[in-house]
Design a protein that fits this description.
36% of the residues lie in helices and 18% in strands. A hairpin with a 4-residue loop joins β7 and β8. The chain has one domain: Glutaredoxin (3-Layer(aba) Sandwich), CATH 3.40.30.
Length: 203
């Protein structure tokens, strides 16, 4: 009984301060999801401006903003219908937005090959239809969609939980259940792949 009583005090202290001695042998299966969740939390903290839970208080469903037809047909969507959706807010006049498109395409291909289904929705905030039409001749990571007008931009940013003065590109990750999970303001770089993969791991 004394041993059980001592454990009641030792275990919480270990969890709070960390135990120096690592347990021997493989971790019990019931701890695997805890480790995975920890990795996702750390990844989210390092990459996302806003983080939303997958359920419960604070959860936020993704809802597409109003759109209009493109000046010319967009290439067919890339990626599976099921799985994560990467929403990208961009414009043809935004240099960093255009520069990161090949990187996003490579990530999409690699993640799908590694068993993490991912597709892109590229929401253009262009007001110049001619510029957007010209851009549609090139290849992109996913389906291009066109925001209906400047008046809808503030509502779109509000739905993502970011400031209305935020600069593009803006990236949002939507989980397979349609919930907004992570929003990043600013471009991405080669070094973020491991973080992205951790965020998108099933859990």
């Amino acid at each position: 009984m004394d041993r059980l009583r001592d454990l009641k005090f030792i275990l919480p202290l270990c969890l709070l301060l960390g135990c120096d001695e690592a347990p021997k042998g493989p971790a019990p299966a019931r701890f695997q999801s805890v480790k995975q969740d920890t990795a996702q939390v750390k990844a989210a903290e390092s990459f996302c401006e806003r983080v939303f839970p997958k359920s419960g208080e604070g959860a936020r469903a993704w809802k597409a903003p109003p759109e209009v037809a493109l000046p010319r047909p967009s290439p067919g969507p890339k990626g599976p219908e099921q799985g994560w959706t990467w929403v990208n807010l961009w414009a043809t006049w935004c240099g960093p937005c255009v520069a990161e498109m090949p990187l996003l395409d490579r990530w999409r291909e690699t993640l799908n090959q590694e068993g993490i289904p991912l597709r892109f929705e590229l929401w253009s905030v262009d007001t110049d239809g001619a510029a957007l039409e010209k851009a549609l001749a090139h290849s992109y990571p996913g389906r291009i969609r066109w925001l209906r007008g400047e008046a809808d931009l503030a509502g779109f940013l509000e739905s993502l939980g970011v400031d209305q003065n935020s600069a593009i590109p803006i990236h949002a990750l939507v989980d397979p259940q349609g919930n907004l999970r992570c929003v990043r303001v600013g471009s991405v770089g080669e070094g973020s792949y491991g973080t992205i993969k951790a965020l998108l791991q099933p859990g």
